[in-house]
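Consider the following input, taken from an annotated entry for Leucine-rich repeat domain superfamily (Helianthus annuus).
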Amino acid sequence: MKVAKVTKPHGRKSENGILLYFREVPDEVYKSLDAVGEGENWWEAVKLQKLILAHNEIQLLKEDIRNLPLLSVLNVSHNKLSHLPTAIGELKSLEALDVSNNLLNELAEEVGSATALIKFDCSGNQIKDLPCSLGNCLDLSDLKASNNRLTSLPEELSNYSKMSKLDVEGNKLTTLSEKLVASWTFLTELIAGKSHALFSFFSSLDMLTVL
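Applying the prediction step yields:
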């Protein structure tokens, strides 16, 4: 399995003695670091499956991310992203996406086109609404959306028959539809913080642990 990890170059300093931080993803990453293959279809030789870009100061993730079709894990947490490339929806092998602790106000509908998603973490942003298209990710079982500005969850999330972990702490949720709750029969862990009004909606779930 091919893994690329790009983090802050701790301990490295410029000539002025200032720590260096990545503000953008090095172009070599989009080329799988090796420049494997040649010609217009060089990306067909790319084998990169995990890309860890956490804890940098990255402000832009390029649409070139589509050139990594075998990517199964993408972690861009703890950066300064204000939006995500729509090309994320073209990553049909993506199973784990972590965009937590950025500067996101919204999530593009295209995110829901990454239908292989199993784990999705968008916590620690300023997101007001989750895109309805997330309902297309039928295998999603672990959703973390804590510390945002959510007031409701889209009805389309009722498609998550495999949902086992849900973290919505630090939002403004006051109610959930019965349709959502009834569909999450495998939910075992709910983190809702002070949203005590939500607890009664899950009283019928015997396996549930509320944290």
